């Protein structure tokens, strides 16, 4: 992520929608909570407000700097899943808002999460459904409409994202009381502000847009404006899954 401040202004408004159901899925208020792939800290902020002792981890030092500045009450650690630098049974709960879809080895990640949770500890994870994510697919559609060659980065998670498949992996990793729910909502945002937020943040999926020469960029932007316009009033449809289980 090139610009955490842009991520915070743009994408974090989209990810915030699932923070409440994610924390609710953990059950009664956990004391020691691990925020996985904390980004700019939407889960950390909500968990601190609930009185949890929060440890926030991310693979991006820039994201961690934001969380450390913004939430001095949280413990902030660099970590790249599937490896976590914590002892067995260190946490009562672990929550990952839109990070599991970034990891390349889902079974190894779930095994590591099982290890760092105490017996009875709760896990909750969200991810986007790749085919129903209009709020980001509109950028890929704009690139195609502007005839800009675009190969989305490999997303190994797609192979395991179906609810029954993911639930099976949770069970195989040793989790019980496993469930996967679908969350749908509309991301109500000014399409021009959404363009700025996503393009300036330059995350791995759409940094290709920032690399274009000015005239190509203008063409992509014109296509985006046309494709995004129908969603200006009611918002972009969004679909995510929420998985939970107990160690
Ligand atoms: C879409 S953002 C979500 C951030 C935050 N949880 C939120 O809801 O806004 C994904 C985050 O996961 C981090 N990330 C990506 N791959 C990771 C990995 N393998 N281990 C740890 N963090 C990772 C990224 O740096 C980014 O901050």
From TrEMBL:
Keywords: Methyltransferase, Transferase
GO biological process: methylation
One matching Pfam family: Methyltransf_11
Lineage: Bacteria, Bacillati, Actinomycetota, Actinomycetes, Streptosporangiales
Stated name of the protein: Class I SAM-dependent methyltransferase
Methyltransferase type domain span: 34-124
EC number annotated for this UniProt entry: 2.1.1.-
Domain of life: Bacteria
Gene3D superfamilies from the UniProt entry: Vaccinia Virus protein VP39 (3.40.50.150)
Organism: Nonomuraea spiralis
């Amino acid at each position: 992520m090139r610009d955490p401040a842009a991520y915070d202004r743009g994408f974090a408004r989209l990810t915030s929608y699932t923070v409440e159901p994610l924390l609710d899925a953990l059950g009664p208020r956990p004391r020691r909570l691990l925020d996985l792939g904390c980004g700019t800290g939407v889960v950390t902020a909500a968990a601190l407000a609930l009185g949890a002792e929060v440890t926030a981890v991310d693979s991006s030092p820039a994201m961690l700097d934001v969380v450390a500045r913004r939430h001095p009450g949280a413990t902030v650690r660099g970590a790249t899943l599937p490896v976590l630098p914590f002892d067995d049974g260190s946490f009562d709960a672990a929550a990952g808002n839109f990070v599991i879809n970034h990891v390349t080895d889902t079974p190894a990640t779930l095994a590591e999460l099982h290890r760092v949770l105490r017996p009875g500890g709760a896990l909750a994870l969200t991810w986007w459904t790749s085919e129903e994510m209009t709020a980001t697919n509109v950028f890929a559609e704009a690139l195609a409409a502007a005839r800009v060659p675009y190969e989305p980065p490999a997303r190994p998670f797609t192979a395991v994202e179906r609810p029954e498949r993911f639930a099976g992996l949770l069970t195989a990793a040793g989790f019980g009381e496993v469930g996967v729910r679908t969350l749908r909502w509309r991301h109500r945002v000014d399409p021009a502000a959404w363009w700025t937020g996503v393009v300036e943040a330059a995350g791995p999926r759409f940094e290709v847009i920032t690399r274009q020469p000015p005239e190509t960029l203008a063409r992509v932007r014109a296509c985006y404006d046309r494709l995004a316009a129908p969603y200006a009033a009611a918002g972009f449809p969004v679909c995510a899954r929420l998985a939970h289980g107990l160690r």
